[in-house]
Amino acid sequence: MKVWIAQHLFVVILVSSAVPLTEALGSTVCADRFNGLSFADPASCSSFFVCQRGNAVRRECSNGLYYDPKIQTCNLPGLVKCFNGDRGGSVLGDVKANVTLVPNGKANGEVTTTPPQTTTCPPTTTVTPAVTTKKSKLILDTEDADDAHSIFQVTPHPLTNRIDVLRSQRDCRGINDGEYLTDPKHCRRFYMCHKNRVKRHNCPRNQWFDRETKSCQDRELVLNCPVNRN
Fold first, then answer.
1. To 10 degrees, the CA torsion angle through 92, 97, 101, 104?
2. Please, what are the domains in the chain?
3. DSSP string of 49-104?
4. Could you give the residue ranges of the DSSP H alpha helices within the chain?
5. Which pLDDT band, with edges at 50, 70 and 90, does 131 fall under?
6. Looking at the predicted structure, is the pLDDT value of residue 221 above 60?
7. How does pLDDT run across 159-186, given as a tens digit for each residue?
8. Nearest to residue 50, comparing CAs of 66, 69, 78?
9. 125-129: long-range contacts at Cβ-Cβ below 8 A with a sequence spacing of 24 or more?
10. Considering 87, 113, 191, 194, which has the largest number of Cβ atoms within 10 A of its Cβ?
């Protein structure tokens, strides 16, 4: 009986100390980051933290989805490398924490950033395969009523950079024209930067925006939209 009580107390102390440790680490990481930056929860596949005014706010993905740090949004579990909270590497980037617990259960410590190590490899020659995809008609939905129903052709091209998720109307400031942004709630919508402003576009009916080809494809062929709805 005494052994069971001791084991039970140990588990309670361990769980209660893990929460302030994670929160202290997240708040320290957000101290010098801009608002809206998100990173994975090291203790859960489905939760993540968002930086708001220097503090880390914990959020949960929708039911059945995992947080994907590569695209900084929730994604299908099959596309996220995570198993029972273990992501097989650092979920906060190249950040090392030196945190200690004091008797009152709060965490004290400091976080230092370690620059990434660069390994020199022998030069190699790579060949980029040609990507053949069909052209899709996109319906432009702009702020101008005259152009609200204009149709134009977009030729998809290979993905070269990660596509960010639209968070505010200011996301296109300082961004080159033609950059794409995805909608966090709708698979049919996507956005394009034009003259530092966000322009919303809609794919045709029964088509979704494909993040890999940066084009509208038949919805059954698009497997990289986390919300999985129009």
1. -60
2. 2-113 (2.170.140.10), 136-221 (no CATH)
3. EEEETTEEEEEEPPTT-EEETTTTEEE-GGGS--BTTB-SS-SSSSEEEEEEE-TT
4. 2-29
5. very low
6. yes
7. 444 567 777 777 888 878 888 888 888 8
8. 69
9. 128/158
10. 191
